[in-house]
Design brief:
With 275 residues, the chain is of the alpha/beta class. The protein has two domains: 112 residues, Rossmann fold (3-Layer(aba) Sandwich); 158 residues, Rossmann fold, CATH 3.40.50. The strands form two sheets. The chain has a four-stranded parallel β-sheet, with helices on both faces. Strands 6-5-7-8 form a four-stranded parallel β-sheet, with helices on both faces. Strand 5, helix 7 and strand 6 form a beta-alpha-beta unit. The longest helix is centred in the last third of the chain and has 21 residues. The protein is globular. It starts with a strand and ends with a helix.
């Protein structure tokens, strides 16, 4: 069984994601496709999100699950009007906690971050902006600013991993999709070589890639098993030539992939300090 899950927030979405992940972990045998939607803080953005939710419902044949930490009632009402199973996480606890404390909640967004270390929060916000601005190789000239650059074929998990690294660890993560043009040239942009010590290659099983691509473009040459096998084979050659560490994303969650990358980054930092 497959269900799409949206983590929606008017801020970073870290709270919705953490609580939602804990709840989902109790249900085995379900293939959850996680979609992170931070900064849905206007009715216009909420209406645009409704289209994405509807696409997921049509694709899965089941309404998506929406974990929300949305305090703006007007924005919340827009999302609730869509074809999803909406769970407002704050509401579960807000009213009983208000009764216990004898105080009404302020219902202001971003208050939880005022309690945490401000520099950590700002670092994460900057990292999220960087990840979104440097997705899909749109700014190779910015790779020198990145802590991590993820390299891989289309639909191998680059973007969600970058967002996760930014949201949870404040890492400046960019990514580059290996394109057909790169394969035809048999080489990668110079900017990749310039920062190869920061590059991590993402590999995925051809059958799994075929299934993922077929969800978006069923019956296309792009999604065919042969094309997936060819793309992966040619990507492996490029990874070997570049000499980068390769992570297999086939059976690993985004959290596991991010954890491996974080450990490697910290190890490099310690080695740099040691020298």
């Amino acid at each position: 069984m497959k269900r799409t899950v949206f983590f929606v927030s008017e801020s970073t979405g870290i709270t919705a994601e953490a609580m939602g992940h804990s709840l989902l972990s109790q249900f085995e045998g379900v293939d959850f496709e996680r979609v992170y939607m931070p900064f849905i803080n206007t009715e216009q953005r909420a209406r645009a999100l409704l289209d994405v939710i509807q696409e997921a419902a049509d694709r899965d044949g089941a309404r998506p699950i929406i974990f929300s930490t949305m305090l703006d009632e007007q924005v919340r009402e827009v999302i609730q009007s869509g074809h999803g199973y909406f769970l407002e996480l704050f509401d579960v606890f807000m009213e009983p906690l208000s009764r216990e404390l004898g105080l009404p909640p302020s219902r202001k967004s971003g208050r939880s971050h005022a309690i945490t270390e401000p520099t950590t929060y700002i670092k994460r916000i900057d990292a999220i902006n960087f990840a979104m601005s440097n997705d899909d190789g749109v700014r190779p000239d910015n790779f020198y600013r990145a802590d991590v650059v993820l390299l891989g074929v289309s639909r191998s998990g680059k973007t969600p991993t970058c967002i996760y690294l930014a949201m949870h660890y404040g890492l400046m993560a960019a990514n580059y999709p290996i394109t057909e043009e790169d394969f035809e040239k048999g080489d990668l942009p110079r900017e990749i070589y310039d920062v190869k010590e920061k590059v991590y290659g993402l590999m995925i099983d051809a059958q799994r890639l075929h299934l993922i691509r077929s969800e978006r473009r069923a019956g296309s040459e792009y999604a065919s098993l042969k094309r997936c096998q060819d793309d992966i084979r040619r990507a492996q050659v490029m990874f070997q030539r570049l000499g980068v560490r390769v992570l297999d994303t086939t059976s690993q969650s985004i959290e596991e992939i991010a954890s491996h990358i974080l450990k490697a980054v910290k190890l490099k930092q310690r080695q740099a300090v040691g020298h």
